[in-house]
Write a structure and sequence with these properties.
The protein is mainly beta. It is 11% helix and 36% strand. It has a single domain, classed as Macroglobulin (MG2) domain (Immunoglobulin-like, Sandwich). A hairpin with a 2-residue loop joins strand 2 and strand 3.
Length: 191
């Protein structure tokens, strides 16, 4: 007589994490559908949304990274940028990483910012500039309006039709035509 032996199921390691992820996904539902009912969520054009970031900001770039954010308010603007960064993806409606470079087909890229000081209603211009040998060339730009003095948010920039040209770029936050924060990043064939 043959005996049937049931294989053991080990509930440690990956099995537990997989089960937790499935249950969490089912409990949270579709994050995109949830955002579409949020009146602060904007879609269409270049700006997807301007929402507060969680208290823990995305991982900061190393200290040697070029283009640190402005430390003091720019003259005459009253705007102080605490941090600015580049993200390649979102998680739960917020920038999920802080990258130094992207690939030429990355779309969209997210320029995120955290303000330390700004008057509500202050207009900001978020720009992505290509740093050519002959000077800066604007790749894309969009305008946002500050809702709160310590606001955080992000702007999504879609890639151009013929991809991002390889080279160095600068993300810029401006207020009243004055740069109040910058961050440089690279577009490489292999980021």
């Amino acid at each position: 007589m043959s005996r049937y032996r049931c294989p053991r199921i080990r509930w440690g390691g990956r099995a537990v994490w997989l089960l937790a992820a499935v249950l969490l996904s089912a409990a949270l539902g579709d994050p995109v559908a949830a955002q579409s009912s949020d009146p602060r969520f904007k879609s269409g054009g270049a700006v997807l949304q301007t929402l507060p970031l969680p208290a823990a900001a995305p991982t900061a770039a190393p200290a040697a990274a070029p283009g640190p954010a402005a430390a003091a308010p720019a003259a005459g603007t009253g705007v102080k940028v605490a941090a600015i960064g580049i993200a390649s993806k979102l998680a739960f409606g917020q920038p999920a990483d802080d990258v130094k470079g992207i690939g030429p087909t990355a779309s969209p890229i997210y320029v995120w910012y955290r303000l330390a000081q700004a008057a509500p209603g202050t207009p900001l211009r978020i720009r992505v500039l290509f740093l050519a040998k002959t000077g800066e060339a604007e790749a894309s730009a969009t305008d946002v309006v500050v809702a709160a003095a310590d606001e955080s948010g992000y702007v999504a920039f879609d890639r151009p039709a013929d991809n991002w040209p390889l080279g160095r770029y600068r993300a810029v936050v401006e207020s009243g035509g004055v740069r109040v924060g910058t961050r440089e990043f690279d577009v490489k064939a292999r980021p």
